[in-house]
Amino acid sequence: MMKKQLLIILAGILFAGSFAFQPVHASKIVESDREVNQLDEAGSLAKYHDNDINGKNIKIAILDTGIDTTNRDLTFKKAINFTSADSADFTDRNGHGTKIAGIIGARKNGEGLIGIAPNSELYIAKVANDSGKVAFEEVIKGLNWAVQQKVDIINISLEFGKGNEALKEAIDNAVEHDIIVVASAGNIRAEGDTFKAYPGAYPDVISVGMLNVHGQIYADEFKEKKVDVYAPGEDLTSTYFDNKMTLDTGVSYATAYASGYAALVMEDKLSRDESISRESLLKTMKADLNQGINGTPWYVYTGLVLNIVTVCALLGLVIYSLLYRRKTLPKKWSTKIIWVVIASLVFINVIGRVIVYILSS
């Protein structure tokens, strides 16, 4: 009898849907007398906010445990519940969905938290019950509802241990409607844990891994997973019940960070009439968020290399000028060499920076 019960428990662990929210440490309440900015890896977030790029007009659907409707930091366009017969009961009683919504879009209102994309439009689909349990059917309904709302991004901070044909069809349908689907690559529950998490493992989904507070990959196991982009996920400030804030760690939160960041990149590209695709968003997100980790695109460092080359060349000109003044070089070389070097520097810098702009756009 004991063996049978054990097998049932193991089966439940392997195949039941669950949130990627099992944190490395428990939530910590954050107290502050000022509005809190989100963790910003290497200033990549500030470069958008400082240019008034905050996710304006970008629609983001959050498939989670609902939302705390009384939180002063959170607003939403539409919301629906798929976990019971009452579609209007989308109130979050778990806390996870409220945290995800805050990381993505907490409003800039002088109190609480400023989200990654504070001006984005949030669409809330409650697909997990108050205990955090979730099934394929509810996620599929949430995906189809998000398509009907014509959202731009769908955030799925949850994971299944296996795939599902109907889930794959719903994901494909969203992608065919030009929606960017962002999902967790799955938490690392134990050393050597490299299981595939769905829907994050589907090829058309942006699968998110986690960075620590130093911008490094949180665990080596993520390198073995199917991860498209890494985002900060350690000690992220989140919105919570009673208008409080918490400090949390987990891939769920990294996924929310990536979804919010995708909204900023999307708004920036739209403002410049650039085309948007999964690939173009990933290029920019990797360049901005993957600093300091293996796999960083080579062009991230091109600007630094060009600066070094320029400084070295200018130092060379100074040395050359000193030698010329001492009459240790043929007089006829001076002007010609100086102009050749200057022209070469201008050419290399222009071409190099144009290439970086093209690759990162």
From TrEMBL:
Alphabetized GO MF terms: serine-type endopeptidase activity
Keyword Nucleus: no
Entry-linked PROSITE patterns: SUBTILASE, SUBTILASE_ASP, SUBTILASE_HIS
InterPro entries hit by this protein: Peptidase_S8/S53_dom, Peptidase_S8/S53_dom_sf, Peptidase_S8_Asp-AS, Peptidase_S8_His-AS, Peptidase_S8_subtilisin-like, Peptidase_S8_subtilisin-rel
Entry keywords, A to Z: Hydrolase, Membrane, Protease, Serine protease, Signal, Transmembrane, Transmembrane helix
Alphabetized Pfam families for the sequence: Peptidase_S8
Domain Peptidase S8/S53: 55-284
Membrane-traversing stretches: 298-325, 337-359
Signal peptide: 1-26
Residues the record marks as active site: 64 (charge relay system), 96 (charge relay system), 252 (charge relay system)
Annotated SUPFAM superfamilies: Subtilisin-like
Origin superkingdom: Bacteria
GO BP term, example: proteolysis
Family, similarity comment: Belongs to the peptidase S8 family.
Name of the protein: Peptidase S8/S53 domain-containing protein
Organism: Listeria booriae
